[in-house]
Amino acid sequence: QVQLVESGGGSVQAGGSLRLSCAASGSIFSISAWAWYRQAPGKQRELVASIYRGGNTYYADFVKGRFTISRDTAKNTVYLQMNSLKPEDTAVYYCRSLGGADYWGQGTQVTVSS
Q1: Element (DSSP H or E) covering residue 12
Q2: pLDDT (tens digit, 9 = 90+) per residue, 53-107?
Q3: Which of 14, 71, 91, 105 holds its CA 20 to 30 A away from the CA of 27?
Q4: CA–centroid distance for 17 within its chain
């Protein structure tokens, strides 16, 4: 079992920044990749960014150049640095770990006002 706890969400104005954190505990040796997803009201959950055990990263086109995913293996934590935020980035952001089994965090709300 892996437990994921997100933090760092909040409300900012357009153009602002936030950093989300996802701390993992439990059977973390099984994690082969981490990912951030988001879900806006009335929309499907979508992949935002991911980082693999080897360090490779992936970004959705709509966040390229604005968001950065990173990890601190010593702290078993993955981060999502979000810069130049737009109102359309408003959503609940979820952390996901992938490996032998997939786990999700509880989500953290990000609200960007114009």
Answers
A1: strand 10-13
A2: 999 999 999 999 999 999 999 999 999 999 999 999 999 999 999 987 899 999 9
A3: 91
A4: 14
State the distance between the two ends of the chain, measured CA to CA, in whole angstroms.
Answer: 40
The residue written with tokens 């980082």 in the block is 51
CB of 45 within 8 A of CB of 35?
no
Residue type, 48: V
Q: Determine the length of the chain.
A: 114
Please tell me the distance from the alpha carbon of residue 67 to that of residue 84, in angstroms, as a whole number.
Answer: 8
Distance CA 37, CA 19 (A): 14
Query: For the chain, where are the alpha helices, taking DSSP H only?
Result: none
Residues 63 and 57 sit within 8 Å (Cβ to Cβ): no
* Closest-CA residue to 103 (of 82, 84, 86, 78): 78
